[in-house]
Amino acid sequence: MKPNILIVDDETPHRAMLDTVLSAEGYNVIQAEDGDEAIELVGNQFFNLILMDVRMKRIDGIKALQQILKISPQLPIIIMTAYGSVDSAVKAMKSGAIDYITKPIDIDILKISIDKALTSQQITEENALLKERLGEKFDIAGIIGRSKPMKRLLESISMVAPSDANVLILGESGTGKELIANAIHQNSYRKDKPFIKINCAALPDTLLESELFGHEKGAFTGAIGKKMGRFKLADKGSIFLDEIAEMAPPTQAKILRVIQEQEFEPVGGTSSIKVDTRIIAATNRVLKKEVEEGNFREDLFYRLNVVELKVPPLRERSDDILPLSNYFLAKYTKKNKRQISGFTPMAMDLLMRHDWPGNVRELENIIERSVIMTRSNTIKSTDLPATLRGEDLDKVTEPVDLTPGRSLKDVEKEMILRTLEEHNGNRTHAAKTLGISRRTLQLKLKDYGIT
Known about the structure:
- This is Acetoacetate metabolism regulatory protein AtoC.
- It is a single chain.
- By secondary structure, the chain is α/β, with parallel strands linked by helices.
- It folds into 3 domains: 4-129, Response regulator (Rossmann fold, 3-Layer(aba) Sandwich), CATH 3.40.50.2300; 148-312, 3-Layer(aba) Sandwich (Rossmann fold), CATH 3.40.50; 316-447, Helicase, Ruva Protein, domain 3 (Orthogonal Bundle).
- 47% of the residues lie in helices and 14% in strands.
- It has 19 helices and 16 strands.
- The chain has helices at residues 12-24, 35-44, 61-71, 86-95, 107-134, 148-160, 177-186, 205-213, 230-233, 249-261, 287-292, 298-304, 321-335, 345-353, 359-373, 386-389, 408-422, 427-434, 438-447, and strands spanning 4-8, 28-32, 49-53, 77-82, 99-103, 167-170, 195-199, 214-215, 227-228, 238-242, 263-264, 273-274, 278-283, 307-310, 342-343, 378-379.
- Helix 13 crosses helix 15 (359-373), helix 17 (408-422) crosses helix 18 and helix 18 (427-434) packs across helix 19 (438-447).
- The model is unreliable at 391-397 (pLDDT under 50).
């Protein structure tokens, strides 16, 4: 469906020109000659965006803007103002305009502004729809994800969390399986009860059994007193068993008994302890293969795998790299008391192109390191590890790679990103060095997927 754009301007030739340009771009354009007509139209039909002049005869753009946003608070409005009318632009932005452009209109800038506004509106609507699907009270517990794979995962969490089913979370190391477990517990009816976590790979078998089920005094050498186990601590709540595939067969048998009979015996004990605990388990292994190879009990696998959730690796959710990077940048600049504004385009390009075998954990580690090591107020490509930069980008002063077979577009992209890097991301200075307009540079970066 074509987006509906309302053009509001009391100058008929200017309005007609904008209609022609935007119609050619594939938009469905409606015209209004003054603010009062625009208010009436918004009250009667749907628009995706409004492009409105400030100075009009009957009702000016600012007053019309304020009235329109009372009717449709989320409607994006771009204000057109005469060159040098800074006060009008500031007033428009304070009143709720999403952007402003100056007359005479630069068509390329207008297209960028409209595209940006519509994209932002689409994301807002998608988030609102997701929130509606997940429910107003759904707590994503610090999960950052706007990509399609993560949205699907969040929807699955919203459905399984309110149940009392055991959950098996699968995913590579560093994908954030513990965050998913947190979200399940925080959105269950057990959320006000304990949420106990244990990494099954972090302890030897004998100690793991003691940690899970507790022990009596004298049960083994070093057991100088009675100890309560994690399952008892998690009574009426949830327990998260991370790296479940590392558990030894005898401990697996005890876990199976807890699931089937809701009871267990402490190490060295003779009486059973009753518990009501929801089990959330996770592994980075293919658990079904472990079953086939005899390393994991098949009956326990099916008891744990009532609901299976797969956490996508970072390479399959590239839309999340930028928001995750910005989140970690804010986190570690605050922690290390640094003033770092963001990433240069070349640095962000390298982050976007990396395969991320260590997933989100690797990304977080790299951002933290870069925050600590950079001497600039932006993260440059040279602040990133050599594994991301590659040998040909190890030094931005090296000649541009003109190897036969490279496309002109690739060479141009490398030259533009390097020039931006040299100017610390300043697009005006970079454009001057490259001998192109700032507008042309903006369009090139947009084509590269860098904003």
